[in-house]
Amino acid sequence: MLAHELRSTETMRSFEPLWRPLVFLHTPRSHTMWKSLKLAILICVLPSVASARGSMEARAVELSRAYLGVWSSDSSAALRQVSSIYGPRVSFYGRVLTRSGLQAEKRRFIQRWPIRRYVLRPETVRIACSPRRRTLNGVIDWRTERPSRAVRAHGSSRFVQGFDFTTGRPLIVLEAGSVLNNARRTRRG
């Protein structure tokens, strides 16, 4: 399930108390009324959510944030998502990799930095559009840690992610960036 689908489901669940009638008789007519009531509430309560999701630019930002959220959390979930959110070939920091090559690269990075946190700065986000692709450019703040060696690193990076929207579901086909000059590596001790 993609991040925007998951969020839509979560949003729907948060409004469930609004659409649950006190008494529900199972008749064909009441079933139709129930469906109409749900639709009316969604139209009235969620117009901004629906319009934001309709924009490919907004979807690119949402997908990038969701990606960074998973990449910042569970290592096994981060590796699992590679096969579902990346295209078959990805331009990855200047090299073209297959999904399996990308998965190996991500696995090595996770082994080096098992604790990771990435946050996209919303005010830095810019979207470039082409007929096939939306490319997100922004700055991320990051912090990584390797407890076994008592090493931490933190800083900010330029971050670029390209999404192909022509495949039926958006896929990441480009990932690039560069560390800004404020990166620091320290040893705990």
Task: Fill in the keyword field for this structure.
about 190 residues; alpha+beta; Nuclear Transport Factor 2, Chain: A; 2 domains; 7 helices; 8 strands; about 35% strand
Write up this protein:
The protein contains 7 helices and 8 strands; from the N terminus they run ααααααββαββββββ. A hairpin with a 4-residue loop joins strand 5 (133-146) and strand 6. It starts with a helix and ends with a strand. Helix content is 43%, strand content 33%. With 189 residues, it is of the alpha+beta class. Helix 6 runs antiparallel to helix 7. It has 2 domains: 3-52, no CATH class; 55-187, Nuclear Transport Factor 2, Chain: A. Strands 1, 2, 3, 4, 5, 6, 7 and 8 form an 8-stranded mixed sheet that branches. The chain is globular, with a radius of gyration of 21 Å. Mean pLDDT is 76; it is low at 1-54.
- Fraction of residues in helix: 40-55%
Distance between the termini: 42 Å
- Principal-axes geometry comes out as globular
Number of domains: 2
Radius of gyration: 21 Å
Q: Sheet with the most strands?
A: 8 strands, mixed
Q: Which CATH first-tier class of the largest domain would you pick?
A: Alpha Beta
Count of DSSP helices?
7
CATH architecture of the largest domain: Roll
Kindly report the average pLDDT value. Answer: 76
Order of helices and strands: HHHHHHEEHEEEEEE
> Can you count the beta strands?
8
User: How does the helix and strand content classify structurally?
Assistant: alpha+beta
CATH topology assignment of the largest domain = Nuclear Transport Factor 2, Chain: A
Which percent range describes the beta-strand content? 25-35%
Which regions contain 5 or more consecutive residues with pLDDT less than 50?
Answer: 1-54
